[in-house]
């Protein structure tokens, strides 16, 4: 999407050198799988050796309200013989046929990987032939791991949806209150805390991409009237292209925190009105916001005295770098630092506006520096992903997972209450006062000058004993004599 950038920004991006190991922790294939895997009724086929299916998508707590096919792993399981003899494309076609006959999914997504891209397997040609032969969509996803980082894979997945899925089906029930939610992954089912709010306003989510999505919903997503972008790092290219092709305006918002949730609901309603919806929805939106905010603030009142002034370090990125920070500041928590890793330029600008102190913003922090920061008690708790939890535990600092592996939903009004509750539980867990106590062997008084050491005490005791006790052999011989 370089066409939307000026010359200086283009040159800056192109001149940036590649960093060795930049794909560690998530390659392009991994990023594409993360975006497309939550499409729950689709079969996801990995054209690769068996090990490539062991990517990190299964660690993410994405939830489905229905189909379970997405939880089944499909791979062509290429071997050395297949690579040498050129059997890859034939094996891929056979796997597509087997999936179609056994599971009859509405579509099959085929992913290229490093091995199959390097040997030149033409998955697009195979997918076209299979689609004609079997009469169902077979979507090629060209995102081999060596192409780049996980974020690039996210965008390549969005391109695959644009090229092969979105716009291929026409809905028979399109209405003036249809919207798309982009970049929402329904982690721990948290979108299910937001959707009832939209339902009460009469707003229909035409497609949530990708959280708890269905293939046909995404195929007809081009008929939505407006869109909300949740994670711009992942799918901003999709939002811009849909606005360009189908005139679907979008805004970047967040469902983390009370104020941001309310603002997102307002912006959705305003966009719909601009696209022809009845202005009456604005009044209904304000009434719903007033009701839900009153309930949420009443629940949070019990936690405010316990969390007032507590210092939080956010070691995350993307939309959470500013949305979670803003949400916590609403209840009196102090943000002592937040990471801007994986954040867009717009995200970073919002962080500056919220924190108003550049010293609290960092791109990334080395584990040793992170440990020193926490060990010196500059933060009362750290909110991050699972990769840095052991740094916090080693520094004897409370930690809470707010990334994709979490087990609690934090979106919407109820999600904010749950987030505060989890922070309170972590901070006031009695284990922290126990582990910070000195070990028993560290509590013994230091040896003063002039007091004999343990070794000298032993020697003195031995010298003071009777001679008969010094040598059993000697005492025995004396007795015999």
Automatic annotation (TrEMBL):
<keyword id="KW-0535">Nitrogen fixation</keyword>
<comment type="pathway">
    <text>Cofactor biosynthesis; Fe-Mo cofactor biosynthesis.</text>
</comment>
<feature type="compositionally biased region" description="Low complexity">
    <location>
        <begin position="463"/>
        <end position="481"/>
    </location>
</feature>
<protein>
    <recommendedName>
        <fullName>Nitrogenase iron-molybdenum cofactor biosynthesis protein NifE</fullName>
    </recommendedName>
</protein>
<dbReference type="InterPro" id="IPR005973">
    <property type="entry name" value="NifE"/>
</dbReference>
<comment type="function">
    <text>This protein may play a role in the biosynthesis of the prosthetic group of nitrogenase (FeMo cofactor).</text>
</comment>
<dbReference type="Pfam" id="PF00148">
    <property type="entry name" value="Oxidored_nitro"/>
</dbReference>
<feature type="region of interest" description="Disordered">
    <location>
        <begin position="450"/>
        <end position="481"/>
    </location>
</feature>
<dbReference type="InterPro" id="IPR000318">
    <property type="entry name" value="Nase_comp1_CS"/>
</dbReference>
<comment type="similarity">
    <text>Belongs to the NifD/NifK/NifE/NifN family.</text>
</comment>
<dbReference type="InterPro" id="IPR000510">
    <property type="entry name" value="Nase/OxRdtase_comp1"/>
</dbReference>
<dbReference type="InterPro" id="IPR049939">
    <property type="entry name" value="NifE-like"/>
</dbReference>
<feature type="domain" description="Nitrogenase/oxidoreductase component 1">
    <location>
        <begin position="27"/>
        <end position="425"/>
    </location>
</feature>
């Amino acid at each position: 999407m370089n066409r939307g950038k000026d010359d200086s920004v283009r040159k800056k991006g192109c001149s940036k050198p590649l960093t060795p190991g930049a794909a560690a922790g998530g390659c392009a294939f991994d990023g594409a799988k993360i975006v497309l895997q939550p499409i729950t009724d689709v079969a996801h086929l990995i054209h690769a050796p068996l090990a490539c299916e062991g990517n990190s998508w299964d660690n993410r707590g994405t939830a489905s309200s229905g189909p379970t096919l997405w939880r089944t792993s499909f791979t062509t399981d290429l071997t050395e013989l297949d690579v040498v003899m050129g059997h890859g494309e034939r094996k891929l076609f056979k796997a597509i046929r087997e999936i179609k006959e056994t599971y009859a999914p509405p579509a099959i997504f085929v992913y290229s990987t490093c091995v199959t891209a390097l040997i030149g397997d033409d998955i697009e040609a195979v997918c076209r032939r299979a689609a004609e032969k079997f009469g169902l969509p077979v979507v090629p996803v060209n995102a081999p791991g060596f192409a780049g980082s996980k974020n690039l894979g996210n965008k390549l997945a969005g391109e695959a949806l644009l090229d092969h899925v979105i716009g291929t089906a026409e809905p028979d029930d399109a209405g003036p209150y249809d919207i798309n939610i982009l970049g929402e992954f329904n982690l721990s089912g948290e979108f299910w805390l937001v959707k009832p709010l939209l339902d009460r306003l009469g707003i229909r989510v035409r497609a949530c991409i990708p959280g708890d999505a269905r293939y046909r919903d995404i195929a007809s997503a081009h008929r939505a009237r407006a869109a909300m972008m949740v994670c711009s790092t992942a799918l901003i290219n999709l939002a811009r292209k849909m606005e360009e092709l189908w005139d679907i305006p979008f805004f970047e918002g967040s469902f983390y925190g009370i104020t941001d949730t309310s603002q997102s609901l307002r912006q959705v309603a305003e966009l719909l009105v601009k696209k022809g919806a009845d202005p009456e929805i604005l009044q209904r939106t304000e009434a719903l916001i007033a009701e839900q905010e009153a309930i949420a603030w009443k629940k949070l009142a019990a936690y405010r005295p316990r969390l007032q002034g507590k210092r939080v370090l956010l070691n995350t990125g993307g939309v959470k770098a500013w949305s979670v920070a803003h949400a916590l500041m609403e209840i009196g928590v102090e943000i002592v630092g937040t990471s801007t890793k994986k954040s867009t330029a717009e995200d970073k600008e919002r962080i500056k506006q919220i924190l108003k102190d550049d010293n609290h913003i960092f791109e990334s922090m080395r584990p040793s520096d992170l440990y020193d920061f926490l060990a010196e008690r500059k933060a009362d708790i750290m909110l991050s992903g699972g990769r840095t939890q052991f740094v916090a535990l080693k520094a004897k600092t409370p930690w809470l997972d707010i990334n994709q592996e979490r087990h609690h939903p934090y979106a919407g009004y109820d999600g904010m209450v749950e987030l505060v509750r989890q922070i309170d539980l972590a901070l006031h867990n009695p284990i922290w006062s126990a582990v910070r106590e000195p070990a028993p062997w560290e509590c013994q008084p230091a040896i003063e000058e002039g007091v004999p050491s343990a070794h000298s005490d032993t020697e003195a005791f031995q010298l003071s004993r009777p001679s008969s006790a010094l040598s059993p052999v000697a005492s025995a011989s004396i007795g015999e004599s």
